[in-house]
Amino acid sequence: MALLDDIYHSVINCQTTKKIWDTLVVLFEGVAKVKKNRRSFLIRQYELFTTKPGESLIETYERFNCLLNDLKQHGTEVENEDFLIKFLRSLSSEWDGIIIAIK
After folding, report:
1. Burial class, 53, CB count within 10 angstroms (exposed 0-12 / middle 13-18 / buried 19+)
2. Within 10 A of 88 (CB to CB), how many other CB atoms are there?
3. 31-35, 42-46, 54-58, 86-90: range with lowest mean pLDDT
4. pLDDT at residue 65 greater than cutoff 70
5. Cβ–Cβ contacts within 10 Å for residue 18, how many?
6. In this structure, what DSSP letter does residue 94 have?
7. Mean pLDDT in residue range 28-37
8. pLDDT higher for 100 or 48?
């Protein structure tokens, strides 16, 4: 009853709790190769991160923060100073005056 339908259908035919656990691990963590690819993808997203057209500062920050959390979850931590600089550089030109004041 606690599992979502799509997850439940993935484990319904498992005969043991160990098999259910192993299936859930693969579903939620993935195999090593998938995790490595995901980490590479997240690093690339971080490197190319920019503000989207029409996006508010709060939306940009939330998207950036989610990316940082995903990176941390996949074993890549970014230093505070590095991610602050990256975030400021990703902002659109309308924020240039404030960015200079912050620096």
Report:
1. exposed
2. 15
3. 31-35
4. yes
5. 9
6. G
7. 78
8. 48
Run of H or E including 26: helix 17-28
What do you get for the CA distance between the two ends of the chain, in Å? Answer: 53
Asked if residue 61 lies in contact with residue 51, where contact means CB atoms within 8 angstroms, the answer is no
Is 79 a residue whose pLDDT tops 70? Answer: yes
Quote the CA–CA distance of 30 and 103 in Å, as a whole number.
41
| Residues recorded for the chain | 103
Alpha-carbon distance values, 98 to 13, 53, 56, 101 (Å): 58, 19, 15, 5
Which residues are within 8 A (CB) of 6 and not within 5 positions of it... i.e. 6 or more apart?
A: none
pLDDT over 80 (residue 103): no
- Give the C-alpha distances (Å, rounded to integers) separating 89 from 2, 24, 38, 48, 101: 43, 39, 24, 11, 13
